[in-house]
Amino acid sequence: MRTLSLAMLSALLLAAAPGSEPASAEKSGAPSPEAVVPAAAAADDSAPSAAEGKEGAQEDEPVGVGPETFDEALELHYGGTPREAAPLFFQYVRGSARTADNYEWAQYFLGNDLAQLGFTHAAFNFYAEVAKTRSRAEVLPVVLGALEKLSARTVYDAELVEREVLGGTDFGFVPASVRDYVRFHKGMVDYRNGHLRWAWGHFDKLEQGSGYHARARLVRAVHKLEKENAPEPALAELEALSADEKAPREVRNDARVAVARLRFERGEYKKAHVAYDAVELPELDPGRGQLYLEKAWTYYRMGEASQAMGLLLALDAPSFRELFLPEKYVLASLIYKDRCHYLPAKRAARGFTRRYGPALRLVRERGDLKSDERLLAAALQIEPASRRAGELVARLELERDLIDAYASRFEASGLTRRLRQLYERALAEAIRQREIALEHALAAAADRLLREEEQVRLLDYEIGLDLYKRVKKGALLAEAQAIDLAADEDAVVYPFDGEYWNDELMDFRLDLPSRCAAAEGDR
Length: 523
Known about the structure:
- By secondary structure, this protein is mainly α.
- Among the domains are: 8-206, no CATH class; 350-466.
- The chain is 63% helix and 0% strand.
- The protein has 22 helices and no strands.
- The chain has helices spanning 25-28, 67-78, 82-95, 103-117, 120-133, 140-151, 158-167, 176-192, 196-204, 211-226, 231-242, 249-265, 269-277, 289-301, 305-314, 327-338, 342-364, 373-382, 384-410, 415-468, 473-483, 516-522.
- The radius of gyration is 29 Å and the shape is elongated.
- Residues 1-62 and 470-486 have low confidence and may be disordered.
């Protein structure tokens, strides 16, 4: 019997949607353009003094930066011109001592302006500097809130944000507005490091009913299932979480998918079907291809071949055509075989070889797995770590290329050079991490292909036997009556013409009458 294994849940770190940035400096606790505390213009040990003059300064080092630079930058920031404000904030940061009154505020506003211009990684870096130093108590909660907001909408360097800043910094007193954000990620860092007692301690302090508390419940349920081998308590917790309306939709969906997979493995196909149906997708969302495939297997086990084939047809939509779903060929071939459509069954089984033949030859010849585009795409899809690493590399490359658009405007302040340094270092490390993740993911994708190839070969052999074997007429008629599905009298039927609409994908049904009785008559 074919079963679907319960994969590790990968979306446990979704951030709760934070509030928008304060519209004014007074609301955010930041100084206003009119009420900026004058900052000391003294430079640190590495900056040249005024007496040394320009000759003693580095070529790109700003000289003579005073509080008026911050005032001007702040006015431009609130005037909605981040392109002009960002270089001035950076000029102030470079030309001021770290003890200057507005040093941390300048880093914060610089991060805001860079994020608005599309330089999210640079923004994370400037936010991180403020958070790690903790030198200004009034700035810390604002910066942590900015970190939470930005990490909720883009991929980011988890080593920097989660391990160095949130997990590796003792913030002391943290305001309630960002307390759960900090505690959850501290708990996740401890959990990944194997410090369960500390992790559970952080999770226990989360506010009951909050989004982060729901995510922590999901982590603990998966831990019970996979580490403690306690499926019953895990299933009970997952079902409770899937019904919790206070939990974020993404968490409820992950819990429902986990429940469906557990029910399927236990042979409770109707309950699995209910759990899959409970997954909430945004309107007109094409859905998850893997979810459609799993639900098709559930329909098949329930004897509803028409619905199963409808979902397999939906997987041919443009939204899903490039997904790595080799099992769909096995399922399609099984359904055709059960209905005695032997030639379509063979074509479906051999469709697997046509699609993945080059990748399979490469695996058997022990070639470079990364040289096959289909196998490489599969590795990025099936392993969350490799997928996230690939997304981070793509994001960093996009933002690095964006520097050229602002080079002339940022050059004088030294911001162009700083951005290039940040992105070159980050991109080199991200590529290294992607290669490490890819090595494991490619091996997993190759192993999955080999296992499915074995299933396809066996199925092709069984189809060949069915073409020639003799069976009793009564058994064939009984089988035909058991699985042949008549269309609902109230249903409206349209011939399929190759069109796919996102809101219709879940409703496809394929009329596939059984030929088993006719095949017996031919014999």
